[in-house]
């Protein structure tokens, strides 16, 4: 039994040291060099997003993020302006209809027949329809 314990302990001792060595290798934060070919599996798995690649492309990523931010804010601003334009167009249409209605009423009230009718109804007025045509007065110009 003593002989059996010796080799068993060596195997058990080797196993944890082998395990520690494997863990150390996996725990190292250095990355393996990437292969030149990208497969769909590597892209979907995120293997191409290594720190080395991100370090090289950080300014491109920042630029894309900035453009995206500008695009979204510009679109929001445009939508806001379009809503304001639509609202102002509705107000303009309403104002045009009111102006047209007021103009129509004023034209109706200013017609000669309506003015004469109002003069007849108003007994206090000294205005009346002229019996004679208007006179044409010719004024000679002084030439000096």
Concise synopsis of the structure shown:
The protein has 144 residues and is mainly alpha-helical. It is 70% helix and 0% strand.
Task: Explain what you see.
The protein is mostly helical and 144 residues long. The chain has a domain at 57-122. Helix content is 70%, strand content 0%. The chain has five helices and no strands. It is rod-shaped. Mean pLDDT is 80; it is low at 1-6.
List keywords for this structure.
single chain, 144 residues, mainly alpha, 5 helices, 70% helix, rod-shaped, disordered N terminus, FtsL-like, transmembrane helix
Write the layout of secondary structure elements.
Blueprint: H1 2-27, H2 40-45, H3 51-56, H4 58-110, H5 112-121
Level of helix content? over 70%
Described by the principal axes of the CA atoms, the overall outline is rod-shaped
What is the CA–CA distance across the termini?
153 Å
Unreliable runs, pLDDT <50, ≥5 residues?
1-6
> C-alpha Rg, in Å?
48 Å
Instruction: Tell me what portion of residues adopts beta-strand conformation.
Output: under 5%
Order of helices and strands: HHHHH
Tally of contiguous helical segments: 5
Structural class by sheet pairing and helices? mainly alpha
Mean pLDDT equals: 80
Number of strands: 0
């Amino acid at each position: 039994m003593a002989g059996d314990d010796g080799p068993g302990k060596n195997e058990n001792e080797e196993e944890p040291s082998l395990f520690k060595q494997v863990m150390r290798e996996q725990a190292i934060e250095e990355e393996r060099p990437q292969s030149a070919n990208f497969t769909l599996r590597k892209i979907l798995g995120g293997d191409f997003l290594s720190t080395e690649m991100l370090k090289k492309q950080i300014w491109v990523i920042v630029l894309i993020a900035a453009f995206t931010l500008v695009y979204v804010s510009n679109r929001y601003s445009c939508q806001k302006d379009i809503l304001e334009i639509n609202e102002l167009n509705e107000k303009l249409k309403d104002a045009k209809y009111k102006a047209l209605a007021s103009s129509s009423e004023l034209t109706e009230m200013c017609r000669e027949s309506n003015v004469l009718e109002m003069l007849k109804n108003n007994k206090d007025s000294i205005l009346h329809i002229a019996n004679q045509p208007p006179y044409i007065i010719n004024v000679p110009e002084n030439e000096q």
